[in-house]
Amino acid sequence: MKLLPPLKSALYVCVDDDAGHRSRLEAILGDDIVIAAPAGAEKLEAAEVGSHLSLFWIDEGGRVALPVRLEHISGSPERWRLRPLSEPQRIGRREHLRGGGGEKMRISTLAAQPAITFDSTLLDLSEKALRCWAPASDIAEGEELHIQVMLSTGILSQIGTVTIVRDDPDGFGQQIVVKFRQLATPTVQMIRRYLFAWEGTRRRNQERASAEPSTVAGAG
Q1: Where is the PilZ domain (predicted)?
Q2: I need a labelling partner for 46 at 20 to 30 A (CA). Which of 98, 116, 173, 197 fits?
Q3: Are the C-beta atoms of residues 5 and 56 closer than 8 Å to each other?
Q4: What is the spatial distance between Cα 201 and Cα 20, in angstroms, rounded to a whole number?
């Protein structure tokens, strides 16, 4: 099977629409693959033999996704045997992926003493930067800010530099782009899991929307 990562590589298991649970590729057995039980497996009530799951991992070309069926759970330490339901699919180069949004944020200035803190809203996010909405303020390009936002995969708390400040198209407030300093690996993985879950939900919504007209026509 093409695109599978090397043995012992990290990958993530997605159950329903969640953001992914860290695992590791242990073996390839014929048509099946074997992985370590994902982190927090004991809490994954929806993951039972016969259920459909999704795997994803990151390689030099970006993110790769693979739909699978859980065939067997055994061993100590626990191992999951999975049956791929299709070939792995490359779903985007990581340096270009940007999405998500809607979460409430807190922004604090670093230049002013004492710091000025205000509420904001995340508009979209990548591994390099985020774009947010904020009330009109005196924030300028080049200024450093501390941002904090609760994602579905964890708390993103970082210092970054303002690269763009522009009026919001709706005429109220501003849109601010903040470029991060170099992120630690766990933070990058957290953002990737968040974007993967967001993209999966968006793709399913698009598929449902495109199927609705044909369903209505068939009923007529």
Answers
A1: 93-197
A2: 98
A3: no
A4: 13
- Please tell me the distance from the alpha carbon of residue 95 to that of residue 62, in angstroms, as a whole number: 8
**CB atoms inside a 10 Å sphere around CB 105:** 20
Please give the span between the terminal C-alpha atoms of the chain, in angstroms, as a whole number.
Answer: 43
How many Cβ atoms sit within 10 Å of the Cβ of residue 5?
A: 16
Average pLDDT value for the chain: 83
In this structure, the chain runs to a length of 220
What's the pTM? 0.59
pLDDT digit string, tens, across residues 60-83: 667 788 899 999 998 888 899 999
pLDDT in tens, 179-195: 998 899 889 889 988 98
Does the pLDDT of residue 94 top 70, yes or no? no
Given a contact cutoff of 8 angstroms between Cβ atoms, the answer to whether 161 and 139 are in contact is no
Locate tokens 């409430």: which residue? 104
Helix residue ranges per DSSP H, 88-184: none
Tokens of 180: 């991060």
- 30 contact partners, CB below 8 Å, separation of at least 6: none
Give me the half-sphere count of Cα atoms (radius 13 Å) on the Cβ side of residue 109.
Answer: 15
Three-class SS state of 98? coil
Give exposure, 120-154, as e/b (b: 16+ Cβ within 10 Å): bebbbbbbebbbbbbeeeebeeebebbbebebebe
